[in-house]
Amino acid sequence: MKQIIIILSMFIAGHLAAQTKYEAGIQKGLEQLSAAKTAEDMAAASAFFERIADAEKDKWVPYYYAAYANHLTGWMNPKADKDKVAEKSKDLLSKAEALERNADTYCMRQMIAVQQMTVDPMARWQTYGTEASNALAEAKKVDANNPRIYLLDGQTLMNTPEAFGGGKAVAKKLFEKAIQLFETYKPQTAMHPNWGKDQATKLLAACQ
Questions:
Q1: Which of the residues 18, 55, 96, 108 has an alpha carbon 20 to 30 A from that of 2?
Q2: How confident is the model at residue 19, as a pLDDT?
Q3: SS3 75
């Protein structure tokens, strides 16, 4: 009996140590992502998260952040080939989705679709605009209280002409809802996605 207890104790200790190493890696990656000043910095953060994901293999969070950071490189570098960036983001996100689909992975799908749509809005609206809308609709089905859904919806509508149902007045209500939800939103753990409140606040101010 004593021997079994010792073995179990060693197993639990080893598991906790591995978990701590993983959490420390995610934290380091988030700090790297937050400190990124250039597209190159952001690409390095994406690569860091991808290494964590490839090492863990059974966790969707690092693949999500790898996709998220890679996506941001497409906005930080005006000369970036947004289709090429998007394809890499999709590949990383698909690996996260193979492990778990949730409101945040659907939101990421929307972000990628919007990025590709901006390459040629008039020609791509029907394809990528629909893809983006469908992704947010799926996100709402999973968790209608995720504030990033309304942040992203508002961001899209803010840049859509009023004649097509967009404009600041429409977007303002969505940013207000996002901020309201951020007040009570609690991520599953400190490692799970929790970004967007500052962005929603700035965009709301721009709508005043």
A1: 18
A2: 59
A3: helix
Gap between the Cα atoms of 109 and 164, Å rounded? 22
User: Closest Cα to residue 182, out of 156, 149, 207, 134?
Assistant: 149
Report the alpha-carbon distance of residue 200 to residue 178 in Å, rounded: 7
Residue 4 has what pLDDT?
Answer: 44
**Exposure b/e, 89-117, CB count within 10 A at least 16 = b:** bbebbebbbebeebbbbbbbbbbbbbbbb
Total residues found in the chain within this entry: 208
Stretch (H or E) spanning 91: helix 82-99
Residue ranges of domains in the chain: 23-100, 128-208
How many other β-carbons are positioned within 10 Å of the β-carbon of residue 128?
Answer: 22
Burial class (CB in 10 A: 0-12, 13-18, 19+), 22: middle
Average pLDDT, the chain: 92
DSSP summary character for residue 144: T
Q: What local confidence, expressed as pLDDT, does residue 9 receive? A: 43
CA count, 13 A, side-chain hemisphere, 103: 19
Return d(Cα 153, Cα 127) in angstroms, integer. Answer: 17
Q: Is residue 1 predicted with pLDDT exceeding 50? A: no
